[in-house]
Structures are given as C-alpha cells and as structure tokens.
Specification:
This protein is mainly alpha-helical. The protein has 5 helices and 3 strands. Strands 1-3-2 form a 3-stranded antiparallel β-sheet. It is globular, with a radius of gyration of 18 Å. The chain starts with 26 loop residues before the first helix and ends in a 23-residue tail after the last helix.
Amino acid sequence: MYIKNHNDFSEFKQIAEIDIGITTGNNKYFSVDNETVQKFNLQDISIPLIGRSSHASGLYFTYDDWKKNVDKGVAAQLLYFPNEPFEELPLNYQRYIQYGEENQMHTGYKCRIRENWYHIPSVWVPDAFFLMKKQ
C-alpha cells in the first residue's frame, strides 16, 4: 500500500497553505546587505530576509541567526518601498531608486509591468519555510 492511499496521512495542502516566496523582480536590487542599507539610509524600509537556502542552517532560524548573516555581509535584508510616486518619496529612497535606474535594475519584466517599479506588490511573512539546498 502506498502512503498516499493510507488513511493515517493527509496531504500537506489540507493543513497549510503552500505558496512561492516573494517575487522581487530583481533580487540583486531588492535583497541587500547592511552596507547598502547604511549607505543609502534605508533602515526604515528594510525587513529581515532569508534570500537563499544557504543563509539558513538547521531546523530553526532565529533572530540571532539572521543577525549573524547581516554581520557576515550577506544580502539578508529586503527593501520594501512604499507604493507612492517617486516625487513623494524621501530623498534617500529617490537616491537608491535612481541608482537602480542608472544600473538598469528596473528593466526586467516583473519590475517593468508595475506602476511603480520599485514597489514589490506582495510582501508577506510565512509561518514556515521549506528550503531546498542544491547539492
């Protein structure tokens, strides 16, 4: 008998919602290290991030684990700009957005189709992660 046919087991989708992670449209631009956050003064729009499976080890991932990544210079912060017109944003946000445009960070499909290319439309925090490590 196969496990999927056994009454003692349920499909995972029956107990939890399964979804993909956040789609930034350009991870190199939106997933940043602490040096970038400090340089452009973006602390107020920076949120903790596990950007790659190699950034997490073990069954649990704590604030201290995240902080170690930050201290190592890992791109462990996600920039979440407000969905407001460029002209209405603080000057430090504008500087980083201009930096992105000068480096063609806004030209990919996902960024190009947004009203404000620098705003990620769906940012959420999951209850759990399933990460896959490549071998």
